[in-house]
# Entry
Amino acid sequence: MTMLAADSRERRAMPGLSPSLKATLTDRAPILIPVAMLILLVAIYASLREGVFTLDELNLDTAAALTLVLAATGQTIVLLRGGIDLSIGGTISLGTVLAATQFRDDPAHVALWTVLILVIGALVGVVNGVLITALRLQPFLVTLATWSILSGTALIILPIDGGGLPSFWMAFGSRNWLGLSSAVWLLAVLVLFWLWFRRTRLGIAIRATGSNERSAFLSGVSPLGINVATYALSSLFAALAALYLTTQTGAGSPTIGKDYILPSVAAAVIGGISLFGGRGGLIGTIIGAYILTIIGNLVFVLSISSYWQPIVSGVILLIAVLASSIAERSARRSLT
Amino acid sequence: MINLRRHRAILLAYLGMLLLLLLTSVVAPGFLSAAHLRSTVVLAAFIGIVALGQTFVIIGGGIDLSVPWVLNAAAVLMTLAAAGQNGPLLYIVPLLLVAGALVGAINGLGVALFGVPPIIMTLAVNVILQGGILVFTGGAPTATAPPAIQFLAVGRIAGFPVILILWIVIAVVATLLLSRSAFGRYLYAVGSSAAVATFSGVPTLATTVAAYTLSGFAAALAGMLLTGYTAQAYLGMGDPYLFTSIAAVAIGGASILGGSGNYIGTIAGALVLTILTGLLPALNLSNGALLVVYGVVILVTVSLGSESIAAFLGSFRRARRGDGAAL
# Structure
């Protein structure tokens, strides 16, 4: 009875659409909605300001968005597995603090510490993954605790914002090749990485575990292995975000990481990642991060108080998640 | 015995609190003085009141990240509207409590009616409130808390802190609600499994909305009381309470997945966090060390309460009794 009622409601809601087109639309809704939002925001931005469609603008916006994109890449991988990683805030703070206190004006030394920071980042994720699996604890609580521990460690190493970075390190952040900034090139590498990664055994296993944990484990996915790999990747990307962030700020900050925890989740969710795991991809997340960045630009161009930025971001987040949850529901309905 | 096992996590939280008190009395002898204990309890009361709402929401299987700015909004709006006078409080306080409850109801409707994940719904509401208050105040509210509020927060009746009396009343009501009311039973049912609860005739929507409504109410109440402690409202005053309210509930033995937990446990959690905060300056440790200790305490208490440890202890006990059982 209820199924019939749902069916007729569906038919009334979308008259004149063939069932297959309707299915395609609801299936693609999680990515189509953020794309439409981004186009709309860019259109508004372009109507308010000259030179939006230039390489300069692309370079600037990408440099502004890239730290969030990197942090949200790790978060995306964890969300696809059906978890969440709050500890990236601590990893980012610790990463910037280590870079600002340890880097010397010597490329070999910087290279060594870059590798060390990435290794420390990955180890944080290994600890998260082991704790979550071995003690059967909730990712939210484990990563909340490790976030606190890492932030505390960063505060002990560098109590206030400061430190310094070698000039060649910061020059990398503002360098251009073929008219494109290093941020754009890094983003291109990231997209290539993702196109490769999502088809690897690990990429498929992460998504499968997020869709249906039981069936993934029954088909031979190791619970410990998948959690360690997922959270290690997340922390590794957080460490990368920290390193990129230092090229922009030129300093370490023991508290800056917390500004990326919830926005990284927001960027992913706006981009169509389901918090229930298994659905969505990095391209959506990147679009989500750009949406959040463009909102900042718009608030600036409109010369209204910058305090409007969180309001607009929050509303966009709500619209995106409402739209995708409605789409998901109707998709589920048409399946049954 | 059955009760002992059911409330193992809560007992552990209180045991941990007593151990902490013992430890502090050794390293910092002045710590157990009446004055110091009193200030510890007063600080714990603020965490405890915020965490009251968080407890209900978490038992119902959700989480409330909108706590910081519901608290902050109530604090700022109350001090601005009252402008240091007691008179206007008569209508401002009830109005803001209702407003806080309404924000909570919106959270609950988003979660229960539209299927928005609680993390996202309450996060969005938090940033929208944050922006709203920043725009409204222009970033710098300047108003002091009225004397009546200061009395509630730091005053004493016969040497007894007023806020402690308030906290005890709240704790009794919350415990009765959870253990003796239909709402409490519904809440545990919804937290254990919303689907099963719905099919069993539990009003899932109303129960979830009620839990978030209570959380909004509690955060608004705590925000106004907190201005009495700090003597004024400032932007960002709610931010620490996101972490501490969730940590207090977790240390108190509630599962973040919902369906279990108790406000009595949360009280222990709030006290543990506050004792730790007071202990570290006595040991000459920095703010960073405090965060590290917080994290370790959460990990340890949550692992001790976790199912796998309980199963491990259970199998140990069974193995010891094994011969008898085989007969």
